[in-house]
Design a protein that fits this description.
Elements lengths: L6 E4 L6 H10 L4 E4 L14 H11 L4 E5 L19 H11 L4 E3 L12 H15 L3 H13 L5
Parallel strand pairs: 1-2, 2-3, 3-4
Length: 153
């Protein structure tokens, strides 16, 4: 996969992070994409310490990206809140860990429709990132092009 400039998407529990680190160490040119923000529990409380450790440990590997998807699906409350402030503490952790160069848009549509709607999912993250002064082109497409090895045709 590394020879073909491809990426591996992963959804692994925090206790298997050592496996990711071992594999990433063996093939440092291979890119990895963490899906669904590392599957946080979103209940309106501050993010759990074990999830924060997981995110920071994965982000310490420079070839790991994070797809900001699955936000509303991991909310305990149904339907999921539409207010971006509800997600701010979790998004702060991702922003600090991955920065604007290694976060990637991902809607998780149509699954997100079980908890909210696609427009709300987009608005939550857009509001947050615009508040950070993020380069939205990086979030919407440039980082994905780097992570997945896409080329302009």
């Amino acid at each position: 996969m590394a020879q073909h400039n491809l990426a591996v998407e992963f959804h692994i529990p925090p206790e298997q992070l050592g496996t990711l680190a071992e594999l990433a160490g063996r093939v440092p040119e291979l890119k990895w994409v963490m899906g669904h923000c590392g599957e946080p529990k979103l209940d309106g409380q501050p993010p759990q310490a074990d999830w924060i450790d997981y995110i920071n440990s994965a982000a310490a590997l420079p070839q790991v990206y994070c797809k900001v998807s699955g936000l509303v699906e991991y909310c305990v409350q149904k339907p999921a809140p539409a207010d971006s402030g509800f997600y701010e503490a979790m998004l702060d952790v991702l922003w600090e860990a991955y920065g604007e160069d290694r976060i990637i848009y991902g809607s998780n549509w149509p699954v997100c429709d079980l908890s909210s709607d696609h427009e709300t999912v987009i608005a939550i993250v857009r509001t947050y990132l615009e508040g950070k002064g993020a380069d939205m082109g990086k979030y919407w497409h440039e980082n994905a092009k780097k992570a997945y090895g896409c080329v302009d045709r």
